Amino acid sequence: MWAVNKSDRDRAQWADVEEPSISDGAAEVLAVIGRAYVIVDAVDGVVQASPGAYALGLVKGHTIVSQELVEMIHRVRSRGIIVEREIKITRGTVNKTQLVIDLRIAPVGDEYILVLADDRTEIARVQEVRNDFVANVSHELKTPVGAIGLMAEAIESSADDEESVKYFSTRLQKESKRLAALVQDVIELSRLQSTDVVRQSKLVDVNNLVASAVDYNRIMAEGKDIQLLVGGRARRPIHGDPELLGTALRNLVENAIRYSPEKTKVGIGITEKNGQIKISVKDQGPGIPEDEQDRIFERFYRVDPARSRQTGGTGLGLSIVKHVMGQHGGEITLWSIPGEGSTFTMTLPAVDEQSEQDLLGPDIEGTQTVSAKKLTTPGGGSVSALKKKDAN
């Protein structure tokens, strides 16, 4: 089945019109397997390769690109064994990306070598992110837990000194709050990864969503004498999980307050255009350097780790926002210039009038419940009218 068609081979010896190829049956089997493949002859020439093999950068023209792969093919040919191995291949010349490829190389008959390839790049990336996350969580938990232990010992040893007890008690409270916030954010991220947002979607009033986020952070803002200014209104609602959307917006407002100096302003703006609703949160903080902006939404990434810990941030807030936006078909964008502050913008699709009529019912968030009442027209037809239910 794996043999190269003899007629094809004979013709290739006398003319360049056709090149060696595998039989139709073999090609069908390889297609069913669903993996990228390359078939190599006795002199390392590529007899046939799948489109996937070219896409992965294993083959260029009729040549194997990776020297590491060539050496593995030689080993299989000389020993008659099957080799399985994972290799890394750099693809691209300008924006170089490294792919992780899982290979299985086996002899086929006396002349040919079959290479099967799986792209494991995304799996490897997810595993790396998971490992980093576990390591970072462990590190972040150690800091407040260790500090709490030290504060407790200090209080015990300073039992007769009222001022010291008061000082260490305040520090103890601060570390306890930081630990609680970190645990809550980790739980929130886990929920985001396991929750089916669609099943919990409701019509959400954007104006009420913003008002709730402002009210939630008001005490924190007053503690720094920061004004929270809201501008604009949304005419249409959005569709999503009100709790998750509220968490995302609260995180943005909280971050803006944390990084803005005392006696400044934080602005929250609402705009609606072309079927989209944008909620922007602008601070007067130090801003974020351009080379840091692509990483700002990574878990535990901080532009200034010392400052973040001082302000009480967990390093997970923006990652949560990004996850929430992704699950709602929206996006989070950043505009920032060092020294001029930052603006984070949540963009979400607005619900059109027809969709709102279809979805309207007891689950619109932040508005009165409505129901449809059938009315008979003089002509015998019927129309639907919306009648507000008694709140009681």
TrEMBL record:
One of its GO terms (cellular component) is plasma membrane. It is found in: Cell membrane. GO terms for biological process: cellular response to phosphate starvation. It comes from Rothia amarae. Its EC number is 2.7.13.3. GO terms for molecular function: ATP binding; phosphoprotein phosphatase activity; phosphorelay sensor kinase activity. It comes from the Bacteria. It is an enzyme of class 2 (transferase). Its main location: membrane. This is Sensor-like histidine kinase SenX3.
